[in-house]
């Protein structure tokens, strides 16, 4: 028979995650309690909260690391089936997509402006993606577009696609960007070669490449700022 202290229903009402959220507010809940609400139940030997504490412990209690876990990785924990894993991944993806307040930038004045637009789109991704920001003559943002998605260590981008997007939107300039899931901000030789290739094409088409940003969870590297564009 299940130990009563492991059964959330036997807890004092104010200590149960759902009831605690209703009575004390969402900020009163720990990360494990919020996750427990998502999965609903634990195992015969472990409450939902304790199971979530175990999952968080495996990530050093780092939500950013948890957000990178796949469904298969979550299902390695006893008590986490496909449905629960999907609930966790979906909730964290919604959180990742949430745009920071006050970051509605309509004009690029520096690399930080570009980073603030791009970071919410690429933060926490377990794979590389390539994005572009299309600009008008006043460096106003026309559109931000994902051009390709790849693996953990790289993604392939076709310059023809980049400039087709630019021409279709009558862009006067373009900012390139991709993320490094590893957290390494240093551009690789492949990054530099690709940038030169796209930059040369931009000169011919009179759509200059103004910068190429490498995005990680800890910051960014601007090729324009560092003089390697």
Question: What does this molecule look like?
Answer:
With 229 residues, the protein is α+β, with helices and mostly antiparallel strands. It has 2 domains: 4-97, no CATH class; 111-222, Cytidine Deaminase, domain 2. 40% of the residues lie in helices and 15% in strands. It has 9 helices and 5 strands. The chain has helices at 17-24, 31-39, 48-58, 63-67, 71-74, 82-97, 111-122, 159-168, 189-205, and strands at 129-135, 141-149, 173-179, 209-216, 219-222. It has a 5-stranded mixed β-sheet with strand order 2-1-3-4-5, with helices on both faces. Strand 4 (209-216) and strand 5 form a beta hairpin. Helix 2 crosses helix 3. The longest helix has 17 residues, at 189-205. It is elongated, with a radius of gyration of 22 Å. It starts with 16 loop residues before the first helix and ends in a 7-residue tail after the last strand. Mean pLDDT is 87; it is low at 1-5.
Quick recap:
With 229 residues, the chain is α+β, with helices and mostly antiparallel strands. The protein folds into two domains: 4-97, no CATH class; 111-222, Cytidine Deaminase, domain 2 (3-Layer(aba) Sandwich), CATH 3.40.140.
What's the overall geometry?
Answer: elongated
Q: How many strands appear in the DSSP assignment? A: 5
**Could you spell the SSE succession in H and E letters?**
HHHHHHHEEHEHEE
The averaged pLDDT comes out at 87
Protein name: DNA repair protein RadC
Organism: Marinigracilibium pacificum
Family: Belongs to the UPF0758 family.
Domain MPN: 107-229
């Amino acid at each position: 028979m299940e130990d009563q202290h492991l059964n959330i229903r036997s807890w004092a009402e104010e200590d149960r995650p759902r009831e605690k959220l209703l009575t004390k507010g969402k900020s009163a809940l720990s990360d494990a309690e919020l996750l427990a609400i998502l999965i609903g139940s634990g195992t015969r030997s472990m409450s939902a909260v304790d199971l979530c504490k175990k999952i968080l412990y495996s990530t050093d209690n780092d939500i950013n690391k948890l957000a990178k876990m796949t469904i298969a990785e979550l299902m390695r924990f006893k008590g986490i089936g496909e449905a629960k894993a999907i609930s966790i991944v979906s909730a964290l993806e919604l959180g990742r997509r949430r745009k920071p307040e006050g970051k509605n930038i309509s004009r690029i004045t520096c690399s930080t402006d570009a980073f603030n637009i791009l970071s919410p789109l690429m933060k926490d991704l377990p794979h590389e993606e390539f994005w572009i920001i299309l600009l008008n003559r006043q460096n106003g943002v026309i559109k931000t577009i994902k051009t390709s998605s790849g693996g953990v260590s790289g993604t392939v981008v076709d310059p023809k696609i980049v400039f087709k997007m630019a021409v279709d939107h009558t862009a006067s300039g373009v900012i390139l960007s991709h993320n490094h899931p590893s957290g390494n901000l240093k551009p690789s030789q492949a990054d530099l070669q690709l940038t030169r290739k796209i930059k040369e094409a931009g000169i011919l088409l009179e759509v200059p490449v103004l910068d190429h940003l490498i995005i990680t969870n800890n910051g960014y590297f601007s090729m324009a700022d560092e003089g390697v564009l």
